[in-house]
């Protein structure tokens, strides 16, 4: 099993490398391509509650989707000018490397091997997560070591599979796995007792547990075995485009830090004496132009999509069925990890 | 086919009771022996329990009208994720004002079946309709030449499933015929190529081919050239089905007596004339039932495209079960999928049965 998957990974990597040869010329100017096309092609997931899923009237929504919308607002002045391309865990990076999409915003972890090998570049973390474990409460399990020999439900091709292998292998513990592609079925299998434990990002586990038929029958273990900085990827070798996506995300976080929301933004633009706000909203300086955008790029993104706090609360916050805590995703000044570089 | 007269039914008995009533029928078919009786009773009891329970859950206690999961109070099935999203299930993300185009495309595809039933219609008209259908459908759905263009990322749901199914069927058959003829060709290169193709495709799972189409094809194309993912998976479905059809048709070709080829040759018929006017009409008539079975298989295989990121009806269903407001309603959503596929595949299989009967009649 293990041999096959590493072979498959090797094959995937080599195919991607072959493709990467084209990228230098094919992706010469993503910004120009996007502007000429007048739509942003954004790769998303089709079924991650809170991050990207469909509303009843056929609109994509969620935290990952909002990042796409913010980039579209910054580049094209209209958050609705996004063409969503559904990607799976397997084909997402290839879709990006081969030029099928301009941005991949699909809760993808920032790892060295992806950044180095696969013809893609990471932008900046959009959501900090970590890999945790959930198991049946009646097992009486208290820590991860107690799960020696347990049967795990996993989704294929994700970093969680690798982390589990590293963690258990190093401690000489054994485990077995059931691999299920679709997350809905993965959690159903766990609820039906087809496996002893399930491992995934803590946020995902917590969100799913609130939606289980009997949430109290399941416990989260205290162990968190990995760092999972999730965020958007762009095709490799296009620094200009990477800057735009990175700084759009930073702009939304800076907006929260400065207290700029989609509600008060017009008022602040006209009245605020704060030079930081003036620079962010483009009333002072020519930062947007240097990115190849208009100077109100950040204004458009914040106005149309909201600042980071608004996006978080709207999609996964306490008022949604998911009820996430801000946790690591608080601003640095509140004790979290969001430390957006200054816009000046 | 004639069945020999059964010895188990003495003729005198049938004559003696000219009005075989339900009781006699039941005694003969349900309770002929103690063992049978027990089995019949258990089955009947199960049905008496199961059918009302199922109907109650599916229909009588079910909720059809409402806004959110909170409205599902009847204790039965909650069909709201379907009824609230029916437009998305059918049209995907197709622009509202352009939905008539999807309706016309569906109607054209549905028009194929009465056409195939029609006996008096000139065959050339049917063939022309068949040949034009995929192109007209693509033009209608995708736009261009007078119609506003619609991005294929807006294609989803039943729209994708029907498109892939119908266009796949229309293209796979001619390709399958050519491959079958090629495989029986006397020209070694053609024969070798066809054998190689058929055997290669048949020995690789369709899922592998789909992954290749979605991941690898794009990497080998020159920069700037981008083939629509929908067309790529469609090509895979066509190439895959054609290889299987080729083998079915080859079976039909082998069933034609050699004398017919020789007679055609003696009359001075060329190869294509022999095939087109004498051999293929017979072969196709004989292989219609298995070919339709393959069409049913193709229609169900279209669901595999979901794993390469094309949102067919199954993809929409998956996304529905992931929406926070409809979580926990997987049963209803999957049942809806099952019913959708059952209705279409059952209709196709009845059609195959009808054709088979017609063939039997025309032979006797």
Tell me, briefly, the overall form of chain A.
globular
- Name the CATH homologous superfamily of chain B: MetI-like
SSE topology string of chain B: HHHHHHHHHHHHHHHH
CATH topological fold name of the domain at 130-226 in chain A? D-Maltodextrin-Binding Protein, domain 2
Radius of gyration of chain A: 21 Å
Structural class of chain A: alpha/beta
Total helical elements of chain A: 14
Oligomer: heterodimer
End-to-end Cα distance of chain A: 51 Å
Helix count of chain B?
Answer: 16
Protein name (chain B): General L-amino acid transport system permease protein
InterPro entries (chain B): AA_ABC_transptr_permease_3TM, ArtM/GltK/GlnP/TcyL/YhdX-like, MetI-like, MetI-like_sf
GO cellular component, one term (chain B): ATP-binding cassette (ABC) transporter complex
Organism (chain B): Modicisalibacter muralis
Features:
heterodimer, A: 344 residues, 19% strand, B: 364 residues, mainly alpha, MetI-like fold, 16 helices, globular, Solute-binding_3/MltF_N (chain A), signal (chain A)
Provide a quick synopsis of the model.
The complex is a heterodimer of chains A (344) and B (364). Chain A is α/β, with parallel strands linked by helices and 344 residues long.
Task: Describe the structure in your own words.
The complex is a heterodimer of chains A (344) and B (364). With 344 residues, chain A is α/β, with parallel strands linked by helices. Chain A has a domain at 130-226: Periplasmic binding protein-like II (D-Maltodextrin-Binding Protein, domain 2, 3-Layer(aba) Sandwich). Chain A contains 14 helices and eleven strands. In chain A, the strands form two sheets. In chain A, strands 1, 4, 5, 6, 7, 8, 9, 10 and 11 form a nine-stranded mixed sheet that branches. In chain A, strands 2-3 form a two-stranded antiparallel ribbon. In chain A, strand 7, helix 6 and strand 8 (176-179) form a beta-alpha-beta unit. Chain A is globular and about 60 Å long. With 364 residues, chain B is mainly α. Chain B has one domain (79-362): MetI-like (MetI-like fold, Orthogonal Bundle). Helix content of chain B is 70%, strand content 0%. In chain B, helix 8 packs across helix 9 (158-183) and helix 9 (158-183) crosses helix 12 (229-254). The A-B interface holds A 12, 15-16, 18-19, 22, 25-26, 39, 41, 46-50, 53-58, 83-88, 90-91, 94-95, 97-100, 181-184, 188, 211, 213, 320-322 and B 84-85, 87-88, 92-93, 151, 153, 211, 214-216, 218-220, 222-224, 226, 229, 307-311, 315-316, 318-325, 327-328, 330. Chain B: It is a multi-pass membrane protein. Chain B: The chain crosses the membrane at residues 37-60, 100-118, 125-141, 156-181, 193-217, 229-246, 304-327, 333-352. Chain B: InterPro entries: AA_ABC_transptr_permease_3TM, ArtM/GltK/GlnP/TcyL/YhdX-like, MetI-like, MetI-like_sf. Chain B: It comes from Modicisalibacter muralis. Chain B: It is found in: Cell inner membrane; Cell membrane.
């Amino acid at each position: 099993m293990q041999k096959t998957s590493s072979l498959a990974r090797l094959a995937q990597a080599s195919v991607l490398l072959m493709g990467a040869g084209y990228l230098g010329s094919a992706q010469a100017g993503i910004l120009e391509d996007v502007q000429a096309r007048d739509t942003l092609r954004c790769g998303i997931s089709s079924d991650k509650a809170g991050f990207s899923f469909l509303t009843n009237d056929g609109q994509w929504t969620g935290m990952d989707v909002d990042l796409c919308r913010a980039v579209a607002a910054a580049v094209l002045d209209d958050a609705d000018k996004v063409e969503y391309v559904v990607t799976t865990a397997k084909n997402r990076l290839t879709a990006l490397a081969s030029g099928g999409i301009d941005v991949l915003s699909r809760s993808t972890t920032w790892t060295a091997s992806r950044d180095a090998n696969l013809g893609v570049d990471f932008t900046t973390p959009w959501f900090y997560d970590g890999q945790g474990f959930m198991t049946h409460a009646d097992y009486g399990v208290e820590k991860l070591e107690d799960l020696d020999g347990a049967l795990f439900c996993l989704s294929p091709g994700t970093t969680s599979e690798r982390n589990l292998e590293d963690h258990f292998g190093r401690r000489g513990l054994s485990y077995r796995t059931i691999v299920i592609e679709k997350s809905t079925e993965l959690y159903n299998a766990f609820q039906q007792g087809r496996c002893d434990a399930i491992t995934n990002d803590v946020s995902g586990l917590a969100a799913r547990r609130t939606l289980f038929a009997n949430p109290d029958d399941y416990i989260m273990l205290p162990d968190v075995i990995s760092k999972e900085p999730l965020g958007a990827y762009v095709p490799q070798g296009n620094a200009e485009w990477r800057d735009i996506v990175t700084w759009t995300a930073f702009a939304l976080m800076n907006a929260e830090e400065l207290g700029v929301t989609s509600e008060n933004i017009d008022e602040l633009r006209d009245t605020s004496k704060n030079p930081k706000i003036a620079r962010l909203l483009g009333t002072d300086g020519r930062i947007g132009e240097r990115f190849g955008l208009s100077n109100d790029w950040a204004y458009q993104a914040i106005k149309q999509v909201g600042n980071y706090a608004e996006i978080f609360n709207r999609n996964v916050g306490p008022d949604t069925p998911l009820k996430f805590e801000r946790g690591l995703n608080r601003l640095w000044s509140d004790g979290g990890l969001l430390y957006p570089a200054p816009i000046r | 086919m004639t069945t020999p007269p059964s010895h188990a039914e003495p003729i005198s008995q049938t004559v003696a009771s000219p009005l075989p009533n339900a009781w006699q029928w039941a005694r003969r078919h349900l309770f002929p022996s103690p063992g049978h009786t027990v089995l019949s009773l258990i089955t009947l009891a199960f049905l008496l329990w199961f059918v009302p329970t199922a109907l109650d859950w599916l229909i009588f206690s079910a909720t059809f009208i409402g806004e959110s999961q909170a409205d599902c109070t009847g204790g039965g099935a909650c069909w709201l994720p379907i009824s609230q999203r029916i437009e998305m299930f059918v049209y995907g993300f197709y622009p509202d004002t352009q939905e008539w185009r999807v309706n016309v495309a569906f109607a054209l595809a549905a028009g194929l079946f009465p056409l195939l039933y029609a006996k008096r219609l000139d065959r050339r008209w049917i063939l022309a309709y068949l040949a034009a259908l995929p192109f007209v459908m693509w033009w209608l759905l995708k736009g261009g030449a007078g119609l506003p263009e619609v991005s294929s990322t807006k294609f989803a749901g039943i729209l994708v499933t029907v498109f892939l199914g119908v266009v796949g069927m229309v293209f796979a058959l001619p390709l399958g015929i050519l491959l079958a003829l090629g495989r029986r060709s006397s020209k070694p290169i053609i024969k070798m190529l066809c054998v190689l193709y058929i055997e290669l495709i048949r020995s690789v799972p369709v899922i592998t081919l789909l992954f290749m189409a979605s991941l690898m094809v794009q990497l080998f194309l020159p920069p700037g050239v981008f083939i629509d993912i929908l067309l790529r998976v469609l090509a895979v479905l066509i190439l895959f089905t054609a290889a299987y059809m080729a083998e079915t048709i080859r079976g039909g070709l082998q069933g034609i007596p050699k004398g017919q080829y020789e007679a055609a040759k003696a009359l001075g018929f060329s190869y294509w004339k022999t095939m087109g006017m004498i051999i293929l009409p017979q072969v196709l008539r004989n292989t219609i039932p298995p070919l339709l079975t393959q069409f049913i298989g193709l229609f169900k295989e279209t669901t595999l495209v979901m794993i390469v990121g094309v949102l067919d009806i199954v993809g929409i269903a998956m996304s529905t079960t992931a929406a926070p407001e409809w979580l926990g309603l997987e049963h209803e959503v999957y049942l809806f999928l099952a019913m959708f596929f059952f209705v279409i595949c059952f209709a196709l299989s009845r059609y195959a049965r009808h054709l088979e009967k017609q063939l039997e009649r025309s032979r006797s």
